[in-house]
Amino acid sequence: MSEGTEAEGPGPDARTRRPGLPPGQRARREHRPVHYGRVPSFRPERWDFRVFGTTESLGTYGWSWEEFSALPSVEEVRDFHCVLRFTVPDVRWTGVRASDLVRWAPPSPETTHVMAWGEYGYSANLRIDDFLADGVLLATHRDGEPLSPEHGYPLRLVVPQLYGWKSVKWLRSVEYMVGDRRGFWEERGYHNRADPWGEERFSEQEGPEDGPPL
Ligand SMILES: Nc1nc2c(c(=O)[nH]1)N[C@H]1C(S)=C(S)[C@@H](COP(=O)(O)O)O[C@H]1N2
Ligand SMILES: [Mo]
């Protein structure tokens, strides 16, 4: 649990691993799923993962489930902050580092943002530096087990330094963008950036530097 752990100093993890709870959050051990709409079923033969948009090559990259499963993965333990005011402490995720994905599928140098796309068109936008932050994973496992269907099986994004709605479940693609666009909840009144340490919950709190207005 992060509350009461020692401060770690300004290492590379400083942005995504901070001691204590963000303001307005309470710890909740039980990791109850939160999402909009129904849980998609997984058909490996129909599944692919794609990177598209402003890639350096202008091409699209794709992985079958078999190919994606063979990519090198790492483990990261991070608190998970839902905007509904609960934080699940110390969730152990296994997955592919977003920073590795970007090395295999390089964006053009002008790329400033990404849109993460889930099944059924759910989306969340991120600054490229938030996507590349330490601890950001395309996760296949939680607590050593494959993700449960409700938590995003077979693949989800985990962006631990931002509120949970940015952590797109049932992830199918990442779009590189030059400039910002609002994702699913960002278009519906939630904050474009979503930093829990600044309690960036709602769009009405945004300033011009936070992105395109609603
Ligand atoms: N595809 C998709 N991903 C989603 C959501 C959703 O509705 N659809 N909800 C988000 C929200 S609001 C939160 S808090 C987290 C919850 O993740 P969990 O269900 O694993 O706790 O998933 C996020 N990812
Ligand atoms: Mo959430």
TrEMBL record:
Residues 37-185 form the Oxidoreductase molybdopterin-binding domain. InterPro entries: OxRdtase_Mopterin-bd_dom (IPR000572), OxRdtase_Mopterin-bd_sf (IPR036374). It comes from the Bacteria. Residues 1-35 are annotated as: Disordered. Residues 26-35 have a biased composition (Basic residues). This is Molybdopterin-dependent oxidoreductase. It comes from Nocardiopsis alba.
